[in-house]
């Protein structure tokens, strides 16, 4: 990248050098016509022209010094106009507006005198040429300011795009983290509970052991499948093809928990769960899933009541309630402590709200989600 920029800068400088030479040669006759020049003046013009052309290669390092030197030289020489235009353009592009204002003011300072002379003696050709000179100088500064503002705009848009991309990556990471927590915590808590039951009750009847082993196998298999789906989402550029839970899937979630030994009372009071908005339905599913997981970890023997109600225009209300203590956990199920935080973020992103806490001896988890009418 650095070599490419160096090569591009040299090509630009070479193009400006060709412009200065060509501009001076094309307008040489017009610049000196009507002037009586001594041999010394001719020699001075030639020398300043020969020096001003390669001087454009110094414009990036010393733009202000070069512009001032050419402005002073231009008061006595005829062929440095093009080099002066390039130097002033560079000042306007690469230096702060305050510096450009001072240099531009110095360059245009003689303009009132030239205008007064043109008004007093309109037939004088030199005054007209001077006006053209100042027009070229002003155009060079204006073009430089335009290029500078355009570069700043592009840089600002690029920075905004980079910040937006960084924010999108951060949001994607948070979404994936919530998804992995919600999905895997539920499966692994089932596996942990049944494995703990086998550990603390090794003399259980063979049928009960077989059933617990089957639940462990199914939970582990499903956890691996869920993890594989999440990894596929990470690898794929989009989320196409991955099924997302909806409100109607709460029946399956409750049945799965009952199979694991939980006492779940699902009160589905939505007339047609299939018509619920996808975002609200998916968020409600994750809230119930996390509520069941927490109940399984902290009160495995306690009954859990899940109530879902609402409809179009009223919103969707989800409540998960269970006793704060319900027996002794058969196994210590570790947690990251991020489940309820993640649920609050999910509800907020969906346009709803979530509350949780103790009410008497029960732990309740309540959420409201929008359902447009």
TrEMBL record:
Name of the protein in question: histidine kinase
Natural source organism: Streptomyces litchfieldiae
Enzyme Commission no: 2.7.13.3
Domain Signal transduction histidine kinase subgroup 3 dimerisation and phosphoacceptor: 173-238
Residues annotated as transmembrane: 66-92, 99-119, 131-148
Pfam families: HisKA_3 (PF07730)
One annotated GO molecular function: kinase activity
Gene3D superfamilies from the UniProt entry: 1.20.5.1930, Histidine kinase-like ATPase, C-terminal domain
Keywords: ATP-binding, Kinase, Membrane, Nucleotide-binding, Phosphoprotein, Transferase, Transmembrane, Transmembrane helix, Two-component regulatory system
SUPFAM superfamilies registered for this protein in UniProt: ATPase domain of HSP90 chaperone/DNA topoisomerase II/histidine kinase (SSF55874)
Classification via PANTHER family: NITRATE/NITRITE SENSOR PROTEIN NARX-RELATED, NITRATE_NITRITE SENSOR PROTEIN NARQ
Enzyme class, first EC level, given as a word: transferase
Catalytic activity: ATP + protein L-histidine = ADP + protein N-phospho-L-histidine
């Amino acid at each position: 990248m650095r070599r490419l920029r160096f090569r591009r800068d040299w090509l630009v400088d070479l193009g400006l050098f060709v412009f200065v030479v060509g501009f001076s040669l094309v307008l040489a006759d017009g610049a000196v016509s009507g002037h009586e020049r001594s041999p010394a003046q001719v020699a001075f013009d030639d020398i300043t022209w020969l020096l001003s052309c390669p001087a454009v290669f110094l414009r990036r390092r010393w733009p202000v010094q070069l512009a001032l030197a050419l402005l002073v030289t231009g008061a006595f020489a005829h062929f440095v106009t093009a080099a002066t235009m390039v130097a002033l353009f560079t000042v306007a592009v690469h230096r702060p507006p305050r510096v450009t204002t001072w240099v531009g003011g110095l360059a245009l300072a003689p303009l009132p005198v030239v205008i007064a002379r043109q008004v007093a003696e309109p037939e004088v050709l030199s005054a007209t040429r001077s006006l053209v000179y100042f027009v070229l100088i002003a155009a060079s500064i204006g073009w430089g300011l335009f290029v500078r503002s355009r570069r700043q705009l592009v840089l600002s848009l690029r920075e905004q795009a980079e910040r937006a991309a960084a924010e999108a990556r951060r949001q994607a990471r948070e979404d994936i983290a919530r998804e992995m927590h919600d999905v895997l915590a539920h499966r692994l808590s089932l596996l942990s509970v049944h494995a703990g039951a086998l550990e603390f009750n090794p003399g259980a009847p063979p049928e009960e052991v077989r059933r617990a082993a089957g639940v462990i196998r199914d939970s582990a298999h499903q956890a691996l499948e869920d993890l594989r789906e999440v990894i596929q989402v990470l690898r794929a550029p989009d989320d196409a093809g991955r099924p997302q839970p909806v409100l109607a899937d709460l029946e399956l979630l409750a049945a799965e928990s009952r199979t694991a030994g939980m006492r779940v009372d699902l009160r589905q009071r939505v007339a047609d769960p299939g018509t619920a908005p996808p975002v609200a339905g998916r968020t409600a599913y994750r809230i119930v899933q996390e509520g069941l997981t927490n109940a399984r970890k902290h009160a495995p023997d306690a009954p859990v009541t899940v109530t879902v109600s609402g409809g179009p225009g009223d919103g969707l209300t989800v409540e998960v309630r269970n006793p704060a203590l319900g027996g002794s956990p058969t196994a210590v199920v570790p947690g990251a402590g991020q489940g309820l935080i993640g649920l609050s973020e999910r509800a907020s992103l969906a346009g709803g709200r979530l509350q949780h806490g103790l009410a008497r001896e029960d732990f309740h988890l309540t959420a409201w989600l929008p359902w447009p009418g």
